[in-house]
């Protein structure tokens, strides 16, 4: 199965190769307006994948009032039903159980207009991760787990979620973890072996820390 992963598009919509599954791990637009989401819908509808899944991120205020569902494009002249929006919810594709969660923790200096799906403590994040089913095989989150592609350059701090790291260690069937949010570590991939499983881990951020669209989608073959 050919899976392409992206995150942190912020209004940049690249042409992709196509494949079986496309995953987009949040921060879809630059200013979370209706017009930008129409552009996102149009772009996504024209990517050649059997299934397309996305979640929200802290920039995606527009999605707060959307319910998880089979997502239909809002653009007037285009109606597609081949993508799904996940928000603390799951789906299935070719026998794989998939879960998506958009939550991240606030931080000092966060833009007050970019606080969608944010909480104040890692304890609150842990409550969100508790919803993830034990049989999850592909997990999509907006933010990273602690210590995996989560380092901020200007402070050298590791800002990922400790409770998410604990959760993924317990998911014995997990094959792929995809996230973004930390642009400095975007377009990076590794395979972790341990805890009785082999797991692909991707920071799929398309933009770098200067919000330049310099990265590519990362392809995983399962």
What does this structure look like?
The protein has one domain: 4-Layer Sandwich (Purple Acid Phosphatase, chain A, domain 2), CATH 3.60.21. The chain is globular. The longest helix has 12 residues. The chain is of the alpha/beta class and 222 residues long. Strands 4-5-3-2-1-14 form a six-stranded mixed sheet, with no helix packed on it. It has a six-stranded mixed sheet with strand order 6-7-10-11-13-12, with no helix packed on it.
Give the helix/strand layout.
Layout: E1 2-6, E2 19-25, H1 34-45, E3 49-55, E4 69-71, E5 83-85, E6 89-93, E7 96-101, E8 104-105, E9 118-119, H2 122-129, E10 138-141, H3 162-170, E11 176-179, E12 188-194, E13 197-203, E14 218-221
Parallel strand pairs: 1-2, 2-3, 3-5, 7-10, 8-9, 10-11, 11-13
Antiparallel strand pairs: 1-14, 4-5, 6-7, 12-13
Helix pairs in contact: 2-3
**Helix proportion:** 10-25%
Number of helices: 3
Strand numbers in spatial order across the main sheet: 4-5-3-2-1-14
Which runs of at least 5 residues are low in confidence (pLDDT < 50)?
A: 70-80
Characterize this entry briefly:
This protein has 222 residues and is an alpha/beta fold. 13% of the residues lie in helices and 30% in strands.
Question: Which descriptors apply to this entry?
Answer:
single chain; 222 residues; alpha/beta; Purple Acid Phosphatase, chain A, domain 2; six-stranded mixed sheet; 3 helices; 13% helix; 30% strand; globular
């Amino acid at each position: 199965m050919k899976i392409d992963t992206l995150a942190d598009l912020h209004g940049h919509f690249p042409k992709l190769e196509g494949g079986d599954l496309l995953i987009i791990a949040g921060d879809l637009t630059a200013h979370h307006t209706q017009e930008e989401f129409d552009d996102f819908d149009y772009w996504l509808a024209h990517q050649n994948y059997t299934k397309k899944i996305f979640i929200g991120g802290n920039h995606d205020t527009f999605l707060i009032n959307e319910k998880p569902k089979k997502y239909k494009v809002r653009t007037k002249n285009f109606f597609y039903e081949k993508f799904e929006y996940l928000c603390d919810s799951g789906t299935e594709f070719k026998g794989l159980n998939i879960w998506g969660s958009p939550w991240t923790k606030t931080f000092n200096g966060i833009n007050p207009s970019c606080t969608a799906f944010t909480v104040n403590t890692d304890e609150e994040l842990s409550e969100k991760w508790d919803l993830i089913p034990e049989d999850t095989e592909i997990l999509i989150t907006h933010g990273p787990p602690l210590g995996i592609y989560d380092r901020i350059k200007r402070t050298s701090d590791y800002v990922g979620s400790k409770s998410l790291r604990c959760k993924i260690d317990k998911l014995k069937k997990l094959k792929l973890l995809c996230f973004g949010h930390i642009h400095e570590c975007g377009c990076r991939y590794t395979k972790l072996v341990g805890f009785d499983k082999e797991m692909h881990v991707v920071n799929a951020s398309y933009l770098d820390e200067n919000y330049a669209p310099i990265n590519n989608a990362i392809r995983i073959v399962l």
